[in-house]
Amino acid sequence: MLIIVAYDVSTETAAGRKRLRRVAKVCERMGQRVQKSLFECTINEMQYEQLERDLLNEIEETEDNLRFYRIIEPVEMRVKQYGCFRSVDFEGTLIV
């Protein structure tokens, strides 16, 4: 399944800036960055639950915002992209 993770972490304090880096690192382990605070994650249900737990442990719910969007298959009909960035198709053929 494709999960879009969007977050907005308050960076007004040093603790907030550290939290922002930790949130980004959690997302980088599970997906690819497509915008500064937006990640695409192609994961299964168990990985999704782990990602959600890890991110909820990092954010401060009174200051930050965290959103998950589950994109229903077929993804090709639900996601359109324009511009120079192209996300990696981890399901397709990977040429090294």
Provide a descriptive summary of the structure in words:
It is a single chain. Helix content is 36%, strand content 24%. It contains three helices and four strands; from the N terminus they run βαββαβα. The chain has helices at 14-30, 45-58, 75-78, and strands at 2-8, 32-35, 38-42, 65-71. A four-stranded antiparallel β-sheet has the order 2-3-1-4, with helices on one face. A hairpin with a 2-residue loop joins strand 2 and strand 3 (38-42). The protein starts with a strand and ends in an 18-residue tail after the last helix. InterPro entries: CRISPR_associated_Cas2, Virulence_VapD/CRISPR_Cas2. It holds the Pfam family CRISPR_Cas2.
Fold blueprint:
Layout: E1 2-8, H1 14-30, E2 32-35, E3 38-42, H2 45-58, E4 65-71, H3 75-78
Strand fraction:
15-25%
Q: Average pLDDT across residues?
A: 88
Q: Summarize the biggest pleated sheet.
A: 4 strands, antiparallel
Gross morphology is globular
How large is the count of helical segments?
3
Number of strands: 4
What key phrases describe this protein's structure?
alpha+beta, four-stranded antiparallel sheet, 24% strand
